[in-house]
From TrEMBL, chain A:
The lineage of its organism: unclassified sequences, metagenomes, ecological metagenomes. This is Unannotated protein. It is found in: Cell membrane. It comes from freshwater metagenome. It holds the Pfam family ABC_tran. It is a peripheral membrane protein.
From TrEMBL, chain B:
CDD domains: TM_PBP2. This is Unannotated protein. One of its GO terms (biological process) is transmembrane transport. The lineage of its organism: unclassified sequences, metagenomes, ecological metagenomes. The chain crosses the membrane at residues 9-30, 115-137, 149-175, 195-213, 257-279, 299-325. Its main location: membrane. The keyword Transmembrane applies. It comes from freshwater metagenome.
């Protein structure tokens, strides 16, 4: 069953220097219980896509178009056109989000218990005791020792990894259908990163929820995702299930990303591969394929095609999509 | 929490002692003969001067004088002997020969006036400044915000003596909106209505200047806080904008106001010199100014010390209050 179907999502920010086209005509969908990873460099549009779905982009700062049909508990709703007050009822209930930096995402003046109970109370007309019991249950589930007493602790009394666990507990308190995890491990130590990803995977199975995992860590993607969308300069450039993407990356950008991951199973005599150049300015995108100035394989296409035409996102067999002239059926 | 408070208390006591010593040193080494000042500006009778020097203890070594002064704070102090004995009970801050009164009782008369002035003004400016600041932040760039900017500009540029005079001229005399604050200062317990009527304009004058500063501060603090990650988290939970502002944003945005308000209040308690002068209020500021003009040294020392004491005490209160507001301070 399709849980969320995003079609032609475009997000533009008017700025004094010109229109920043952060996301351009992006379409994707996610089924119930599935994990979709969205990968890409900073500024590729990963985060802003999901903020738009949550209705968290401040009003009047961006032009958002397209549709995002979400199968909520009350039937299908369009996340992009629904009234903001109406959307509030689903936010934190049917769709929850965890953020990149658990250091700053929790309110420093309130105990974590207060903050999680509040998230439960706002969507459930139940007694405080019920919310408190539910909070303790969740805190135990995310692996916080002595949840009953830790409830009264303030965020600064937890380590980074523990704070992210608290954030996860807060996001899951209402049994969401969809969890958006925006770089949940970026701010954490490497050893803690693995624990958090493992925790998210386990909880996803237990709660039977879908998850959008935003990351730029290809290692995280390989372990946790079912499908992967690779984004570059506001567009999806490749989309495939995780096995196909790692086994047969089609777009040179994806190939570059995968080549830049350190691997234990390869001889490490050579330096890590890097993608040359910088991500483009979002105000003045290069003509043709946005990736062409950094692409090492555009000669294979030839005739300046990459510099003049934007390739379409086209199917390359069994659910594998790629936005590249290379290998396009002639 | 208890350890935090007792440590802060100990430090405050040390600061108070240091401040009292510093003030005493400054006035002990001024190029005046304190004894000569006791009998008025044009007094040249060496007999009186020397008698007063002995009476006030100015003939003793410096440290002995300071020690006697400290002792007087706790046990009272008497000047002279026999029929001319003057007794100032604890806490004695000395004796003013020019006013023929113990300094403590002079301060005891002036302090309630200044306190009444400060307490009314702080309520007014907090209500006005915080209210307007929040409105300006909430409706940033809209008409309320523009008007608040104008208010801030006027409030911060007009000196209080001018605001006070303008209020007197227009609100009272020209437009007759409130009756002329006739008569002298009346204590609250004697006649609360008259107390409020006489103090209303002084409150307004002081509050006007401070409210402008607070409006500007609250506005930027609320705007900064609304951009915090934890406010985004609150929104992602599905909380209403009202709860987000009232519970999450304001708690963090207004915490620094406690510090500001505490110290501004302390500053005013030391004497609102200009406002008291414009409205002819017999407060600490006026007591200090008239003492400076007349070289009434004991009063100058006492009012300076008192102002410093109030600031130190207020600092302590603010620190304790802040630890209550912000849990992160408690561990430090």
């Amino acid at each position: 069953m399709t849980l969320l179907k995003v079609e032609n999502l475009s997000i533009d920010f008017p700025t004094p220097d010109g229109l920043v086209s952060a996301v351009h005509e992006t379409s994707f969908e996610i089924s119930a219980g599935e994990t979709l990873a969205i990968v890409g460099e900073s500024g590729s549009g990963k985060t802003v896509t999901n903020l738009a779905l949550m209705g968290l982009i401040p009003p009047r700062t961006a032009n958002i178009s397209g549709s995002a049909i979400f199968e909520s508990h009350d039937g299908p709703i369009d996340l992009l056109s629904i009234d903001r007050n109406e959307l509030r009822k689903y936010r934190g209930k049917d769709i929850a989000m965890i953020f990149q930096d658990p250091m700053s995402a929790l309110h420093p003046f309130y105990t974590i218990g207060d903050q999680i109970i509040e998230a439960h109370q706002v969507h459930n007309q139940v007694d405080m005791k019920v919310s408190k019991a539910r909070t303790i249950e969740l805190l135990e589930l995310v692996g916080i020792q002595g949840a009953g007493t830790r409830l009264k602790s303030y965020p600064h009394q937890f380590s980074g990894g523990m704070r992210q666990r608290v954030m996860i507990a807060m996001a899951l308190v209402n049994n969401p259908l969809l969890l958006i995890a925006d770089e949940p491990t970026t701010a954490l130590d490497v050893t803690v990163q693995a624990q958090i990803i493992k925790l998210l995977e386990d909880l996803q199975k237990e709660f039977k929820m879908a998850m959008i995992l935003i990351t730029h860590d290809m290692g995280v993607v390989a372990g946790a995702a079912d499908r992967v969308n690779v984004m570059y300069a506001g567009r999806i450039v490749e989309s495939a299930n995780v096995r196909d993407l790692y086994g047969n990356p089609l777009m040179p950008y994806t190939q570059g990303l995968l080549a830049s991951v350190p691997r234990m199973d390869r001889p490490h005599t050579n330096r890590l591969a890097a993608i040359p150049g910088q991500p483009p300015s979002m105000i003045a995108l290069p003509s043709g394929c946005s990736f062409n100035p950094r692409c090492g394989r555009k000669d294979e296409v030839g005739a300046n095609k990459c510099e003049t035409q934007m390739p379409e996102l086209t199917p390359r067999g069994s659910g594998h999509l790629s936005r590249c002239f290379i290998g396009e059926s002639v | 929490m208890f350890a935090y408070i007792s440590r802060r208390l100990a430090v405050s006591l040390l600061i108070l002692l240091t401040v009292s010593f510093a003030v005493y040193v400054i006035f002990a080494f001024l190029p005046f003969d304190p004894a000569a000042l006791t009998c008025g500006k044009n007094c040249n009778d060496p007999g009186i001067i020397e008698a007063n020097r002995r009476r006030l203890g100015y003939d003793l070594p410096f440290f002995t004088q300071y020690f006697i002064f400290l002792k007087g704070l706790f046990f009272g102090r008497s000047f002279g002997e026999g029929a001319a004995l003057i007794n100032c009970p604890a806490p004695s801050l000395g004796y003013s020969f020019q006013q023929h009164a113990c300094v403590t009782s002079l301060i005891g008369e002036a302090l309630p006036v200044t306190f009444s002035l400060a307490i009314g003004a702080i309520f007014m400016w907090l209500a006005l400044g915080i209210g307007l600041g929040i409105l300006a932040a909430r409706f940033r760039g809209r008409i309320v915000d523009r008007l608040s900017t104008i208010f801030v500009l006027i409030g911060t540029s007009l000196p209080t003596f001018l605001t006070g005079l303008l209020l007197l001229v227009f609100v009272v005399i020209r437009w007759g909106l409130i009756p002329f604050p006739s008569g002298n200062y009346t204590p609250f317990l004697e006649n609360p209505f008259e107390w409020g009527q006489i103090l209303f304009l002084p409150w307004l004058t002081l509050a006007f200047a401070y409210a402008a500063l607070y409006t500007r501060f609250v506005r930027s603090s609320v705007i900064d806080t609304s951009n915090e990650d934890y406010i985004r988290t609150a929104r992602a939970k599905g909380l209403s904008e009202g709860v987000i502002l009232g519970k999450h944003t304001l708690r963090a945005a207004l915490a620094p106001i406690a510090t500001m308000a505490g110290l501004d209040f302390a500053g005013l308690l030391g004497g609102a010199i200009l406002t008291e002068s414009v409205f002819n209020l017999p407060g600490l500021g006026r007591l200090a100014i008239s003492a400076v003009v007349k070289y009434d040294l004991p009063i100058i020392v006492a009012t300076t010390l008192l102002a410093a004491f109030i600031v130190v005490i207020m600092n302590l209160i603010v620190d304790i209050l802040y630890a209550y507001i912000d849990p992160r301070v408690r561990v430090a």
